[in-house]
């Protein structure tokens, strides 16, 4: 069982690798013997991720790459000789109700969270096809099916990522490339850390999740790692929800006298 995943010797490109989920994915893939290209938008974030992976015994190369920069992505894809795995995890969230949202804010978020995923998928598809068992995993969100209020185009971007992945699965299946999304619920990462610093938000968030706690980035990285491996060889076009049951709590939020508490 020590090499159950069978990922040793493969190469992965991970975006958002300086962040919570991206870095956890990089740590798990590298621990499984995968050489990881770690991409993020600043040298500080990239360097920190590379040293964390290498200090734990993994193999990694860093690259500063903004996922909205089409030519930088194309150049990077051409400079890499091999890629079996692509993990799209670069993303952001910004506040704003749709009725008041500026067009520029709408465009800016979609450019990173949706177009950025597309640009990466398109640029690395030739490598994934050449691999013979290529796998893309895109981090979506349960907000792709549950509108996340006051978050501008965030939910729209995630819904777009889910259907983009399904289309890629259809188009690339015969070429030996799988495409899946992982939809996390609540995860404590640099993106969300500020919320947890306010009052009793951390406890209230833990209590809102049936499993009893908000996710750690590793909870999501485990699912991603499985999907990248041949153990998931018959899984493509799927959206795997990893939310501790949080999206199943809707019917329990309404009063129903005589039925439990
Ligand atoms: N944290 C959560 O609760 C949660 C829940 C569901 C989905 N997600 C999604 O998971 C993914 C990872 O989020 P996270 O929580 O680890 O956030 P994070 O902020 O910790 O990491 C995201 C990383 O993406 C990078 N990034 C942002 N814009 C970029 C750009 N233009 N080019 C290159 N890199 C860029 C950031 O620098 C950051 O390091 C995101 O797509 C996010 O929407 C997060």
TrEMBL record:
GO MF terms held by the record: oxidoreductase activity, acting on the CH-OH group of donors, NAD or NADP as acceptor
Cross-referenced PROSITE patterns: ADH_SHORT
Membrane-crossing segments per the record: none
A single BP term in Gene Ontology: fatty acid elongation
Gene3D superfamilies registered for this protein in UniProt: NAD(P)-binding Rossmann-like Domain (3.40.50.720)
UniProt-listed CDD domains: SDR_c (cd05233)
UniProt record similarity statement: Belongs to the short-chain dehydrogenases/reductases (SDR) family.
Protein name: Unannotated protein
Organism field: freshwater metagenome
